[in-house]
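Recap from last week: sequence in, structure out.
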Amino acid sequence: MLSLLFFVGLFASCLVKPNTAAYSYSGSVGGGGIPFTSTAKGRITGIRVWEIPSQYITGIQVRHQYIWSKVFGRAYGPVIEMSLFDGEGIVQVSGKYHSNYIYQLIFITSRGRSLIAGQPTTKSFNFYPTHQESELRMLSGHHNGNGITSLGAHWATGLNSTSE
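Predicted structure tokens:
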């Protein structure tokens, strides 16, 4: 009887889904400056991008759950903002860069929506997660006080709860 209980317990433990959180990083593109990281608890639920029309990206701000981060770079020029729906995540970050600034940013969501800011000029980059079901969890990069000079994307999966 004891061995039967042992095997039932062993079998049940095999059915429990393991922590399948998977992480990946899309390496930084662009130049140097003052480093920043948009780290916070919870999913990304909104994003703001400032730009100088026909020039470059001046600032980025990320909302995790209900709390906005500080502005990375500077809040100068027109702001473009997108709020994500419940269960929606950012699954791709693309754009254009040069050694001095990020010139364009495109954020694509799991529902196919997009935020596009900046000018389509210079070299292209395309960030996406390496694990299926992953979404953007954090941005990192550099700014120089005038604008965003480099950008990298951090992805994670297995953290679908809004309390994560």
